[in-house]
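> call design_seq(struct)
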């Protein structure tokens, strides 16, 4: 077969073009450091590389999710620790307030600190993460977790959900807690359901009840007294009438106030004490000052009190009345202040235990998130190595190959130039 000069030239140009293309490919691999730039470079390897990169992206997402969960859980741990510290302070104040030597002003100052501690608890319960999401609102992450009404009642505005994130192919990790479970669903040792905010109110109310009840149970000249008594023993109390004061120490069993009336009538108080029995067998003691002077009942102390109960079992009910026996103003419950305040200590202890349990739950999730993140990071390292082995270029090998191609190309070009310059007479000589 005869090959014309034109055809020969075209073949040589095509060959040079392919050689140049190969040189350019190798140069691109050297400059990028990548062995596979286009799928056509290695179709099988390109498919494998794509799959490995997909897996690597998933690992990175799992790591990001675990880190997000850890940040939220760390914040919850800190807020729960702070909440527990608040209750440690509340417990200290409650014990302090039960001291007999404190004045009304002293206990009121303590109660005012309770008001501030309650606000601090609400602030902690409304904590947000770095994205502004409320960590104790369940699924309602943009809804403020707790709101305080005008009467001081704190209500939960979130739901019972818990935001979960994927930290592996098969593991969903809860990264939040619903506020109701953390701050409200608390049952004391006596079976009474309470919450953190109500507990603060209870102690504060007990302190203020000690102030207003024990020291300020007052009536303008006439009052009714009833006794709720489950603790028999020697009751001590003080009655003031005008400028006269008398201290009493009387053994009481049940609800019989006859001995109390006898003792008051025997005292120099210008008071007449009379006992009547109602249809429910409860005695009512009526005190009447002959000169309409104020009557004050104070400094009540009750024996054998049970300090762990939610409500005191023994107290006097003090009701101001007019001459016709019609009630005036609000009924005043006069407690032994040591009983009313100390009865809350068990509740405070239960709450501290509850907060510790919630921290333990958060801590378990923190450990799980850390372990999952470590696993994903190890997998990412391994996949990154596999990607590198497949995609990264062997520079020394490529340089050698490039040098070989360039040398071959130069030789071919020289040969082509020489052959193209020959004519018929050169072949005949």
């Amino acid at each position: 077969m005869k090959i014309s000069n034109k055809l020969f030239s075209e073949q040589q140009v095509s060959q040079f073009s392919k050689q140049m293309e190969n040189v350019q490919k190798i140069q691109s691999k050297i400059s990028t450091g990548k062995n596979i730039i286009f799928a056509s470079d290695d179709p099988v390897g390109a498919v494998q590389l794509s799959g490995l990169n997909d897996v690597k992206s998933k690992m990175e997402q799992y790591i990001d999710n675990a880190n997000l969960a850890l940040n939220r859980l760390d914040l919850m741990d800190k807020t729960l620790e702070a909440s527990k510290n608040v209750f440690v302070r509340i417990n200290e104040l409650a014990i302090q307030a039960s001291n007999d030597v404190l004045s009304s002003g002293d206990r009121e100052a303590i109660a005012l600190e309770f008001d501030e501690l309650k606000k601090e608890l609400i602030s902690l319960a409304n904590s947000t993460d770095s994205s502004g999401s409320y960590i104790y609102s369940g699924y309602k992450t943009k809804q403020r977790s707790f709101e305080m009404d005008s009467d001081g009642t704190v209500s939960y505005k979130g739901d019972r959900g818990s935001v979960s994130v994927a930290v592996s192919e098969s593991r969903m990790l809860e990264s939040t807690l619903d506020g109701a479970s953390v701050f409200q669903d608390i049952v004391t040792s006596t079976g009474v359901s309470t919450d953190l905010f109500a507990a603060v109110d209870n102690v504060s109310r007990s302190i203020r009840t000690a102030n207003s009840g024990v020291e300020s149970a007052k009536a303008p000249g006439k009052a009714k007294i009833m006794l709720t008594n489950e603790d028999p023993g020697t009751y001590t109390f003080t009655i003031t009438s005008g400028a006269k004061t008398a201290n009493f120490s009387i053994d009481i069993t049940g609800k019989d106030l006859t001995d109390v009336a006898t003792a008051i009538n025997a005292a120099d108080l210008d008071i007449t004490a009379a006992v009547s029995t109602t249809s429910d067998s409860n005695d009512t003691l009526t005190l009447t000052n002959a000169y309409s002077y104020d009557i004050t009942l104070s400094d009540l102390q009750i024996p054998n009190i049970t300090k762990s109960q939610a409500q005191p079992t023994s107290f006097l009910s003090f009701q101001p009345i007019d001459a016709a026996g019609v009630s005036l103003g609000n009924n005043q419950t006069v407690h032994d202040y040591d009983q009313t305040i100390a009865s809350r200590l068990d509740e405070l202890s239960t709450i501290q235990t509850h907060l510790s349990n919630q921290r333990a739950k958060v801590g378990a999730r923190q450990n799980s998130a850390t372990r999952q993140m470590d696993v994903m990071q190890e997998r990412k390292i391994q996949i990154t190595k596999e990607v590198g082995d497949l995609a990264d270029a062997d520079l020394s090998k490529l340089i050698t190959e490039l040098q070989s191609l360039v040398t071959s190309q130069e030789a071919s070009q020289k040969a082509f130039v020489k052959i193209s310059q020959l004519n018929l007479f050169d072949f005949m000589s």
